[in-house]
Amino acid sequence: MHLYTLQTLRFCSSAIMMRIKTPKNGRVRRELEKRAPKLVETGKKTLILQGTKTSGTLNGVLSEIYHLKKGGAVRFTRKNDNIRPFESGGETSLEFFSLKTDCSLFVYGSHSKKRPNNLVIGRMYDHHVYDLVEVGVENFKSIESFNYDKKMAPRVGSKPFIAFVGEGFENVDELKHLKEVLLDLLRGEVVENINLAGVDRAYVCTAISSNKVYLTHCALRLKKSGTVVPRMELVEVGPSMDLVVRRHRLPNEGLRKEAMRTAKDQPKKKIKNVSSDAIEGTIGKIYIPDQKVGDVALPNKAKGVKRERREAKKKEANERASKKQKEESE
Amino acid sequence: METESQKPFHVDVGNLLAFNPFHNFPSLPTSREELVKECLQEGTKLVQAVADSLFNLPSTEDVDGPLVKLPPPSTKLPREKHLPKPKPPTKWEEFAKKKGIQKRKKDKVVWDEQTGTWKRRFGYDRVNDDKDIPIIEAKMADEPGADPFAKRQDDKKKRVEKQEKNRLQNLKQAAKIGALPSHVQLAATALPITGTQAPPKKVTKDELGNVAGMAATATASGGKFDRKLPGEKPAKKQGKHRKFLPVVEGSGIGSREKEQTENVLNKLISKHSHEILNVGKAVTMYNVKKEKRARNKRSQEGKSASATNKLKPKKQLHKNTGKKGPGSSKKGKAK
């Protein structure tokens, strides 16, 4: 912080003195760059936490969700009693945690008599709550209760297939919202290239009734079929649960419009001197400035110069020879 | 080819997602296993549909297996952070654009005439370093006794300060529109309230809480109707600290102001001391004092036997007997 004299203080319109903080470490700088807003976004991280009271099933659900999303999730194990996602003042803690851990999805579990085995799945935009869905978990079966051939178990971090079944997802508002949130939660990173040998998991969500969804996690077995496309077989491995939609909060229109804006929607920059033709395809024009032929200095003695000199020498020699001959003849 | 019976699934290969909007359970299956089986069946169909499109994509051979290039996902999902805003031009950049000044590429090494070698433009052992100047000639305008070397250093310091100030202003401008570069943070330092250069004192959490509480209740209604920020806790000391009488009295209360002034006046102008005196209080005080004296005497008799010369902890040298009224206790011992 540099010292201001009294004079300069009087000239400052804003009396708040600010200091520029830059990271002294390359590691810190890279971390900050990872957290900066980007044009094309990579995977969202999930924050898994709980309220004052949880039940046994809810603990199981939270830890299994954490296992499913091992690479991109943060699990808080302490109880947080000041988080009430659906109340206007109860989201400040959530937003603070989201800011500190750089998570834009959160799963908050709590248990009470009125709402047993309650899960609130929410998303953040710019570390402020964007939308929320509250579901109750029923008929939870954990990973241990399934027996299957352990060799087929899906590997951590593989990209899953996601299947939604049921007209409820199209007609009922809450289920539509739940579908979007589940897609965001389950899909993982958006990748450009995928290795076909590495697809081994699938999530199946079925709308059983107008407010109940059956979610299960299965391993994939690829069986030989005649064609290039193998025959898929689903084997239930992972947790399966019934989700009963209780409450939900949609984002307001303005916020939704802003969050849905992508880079492509921005006006495309016109590339100059490029035109496309139906026959020839893309054509580009190159403008070459006039060459200053005489002014360019030759870097090394070009062959032509050497030859010139050689010929000049030869000419001289010839002339001398002819002169001698003349003298002799004379 | 499979039978395409009502098979317009919505398939999004970029997300490996398939959605069947036409299925419904006409009657819920009786047992749980039936339900699970049916769900798995439907799921298998959908996954097969995605796999169809996925495995038919052109693939390249890789070490671990066939690699396919996925198309971008077609389902739009909201972003997690806002779109990055472009950096606004700095004051210099605007000036340069206006004047048409082009950026010139600078070399890392510059020819140094003095030593006859190539030296760095900046850093260790640089070209025009201040410490390499052996002699500075005095000009007519210079005052005698001024150190030109020190003056050069001061000038450089001032230039650097000015540059830092300008850089801060540029960053503040960028921060105002939200386009601060990711590795820079602007931290507010403490306000220098006076013109002194005293280092700002660190305020503790309790102090801040007290001050915040005082500020919160510093309104006419004691901070009761102020709009609170989300998540703000109620102030520590709530309500007003002083109570004033109403300006216009109600009918059934009686004249409180008259009572108040009467009390004060009586105390001042009383003829007899017993009117000012609180007899009960005076009696209690006298009794307590007597008991204490008795206790001390007893303990002294007991302790003087033990020849300890240790200094006893002095109890309440500045004992507050609470003489509220003028000379009340002495007068209370009236016979």
From TrEMBL, chain A:
Pfam families referenced in this protein's UniProt entry, alphabetically: Brix
Record-linked InterPro entries: Brix, Rpf2
Keyword terms: Nucleus
Domain Brix stretches: 44-254
Location, primary (coarse class): nucleus
PANTHER family: BRIX DOMAIN CONTAINING PROTEIN (PTHR12728), RIBOSOME PRODUCTION FACTOR 2 HOMOLOG (PTHR12728:SF0)
Protein name: Ribosome production factor 2 homolog
Taxon lineage: Eukaryota, Viridiplantae, Streptophyta, Embryophyta, Tracheophyta
UniProtKB/TrEMBL annotation, chain B:
UniProt feature, compositional bias: Basic residues: 311-322
Tagged with keyword DNA repair: no
Matching InterPro entries: Ribosom_reg
Keywords, sorted A to Z: Nucleus, Ribosome biogenesis
Keyword Nucleus: yes
Origin: domain of life: Eukaryota
One matching Pfam family: RRS1
Location of region: Disordered: 61-91, 138-166, 218-261, 281-335
Biased composition (Basic and acidic residues): 149-166, 224-235
Subcellular compartments: Nucleus
Task performed by this protein: Involved in ribosomal large subunit assembly.
Similarity remark: Belongs to the RRS1 family.
Name by which UniProt lists this protein: Ribosome biogenesis regulatory protein
The organism of origin for this protein: Hibiscus sabdariffa
Source lineage: Eukaryota, Viridiplantae, Streptophyta, Embryophyta, Tracheophyta
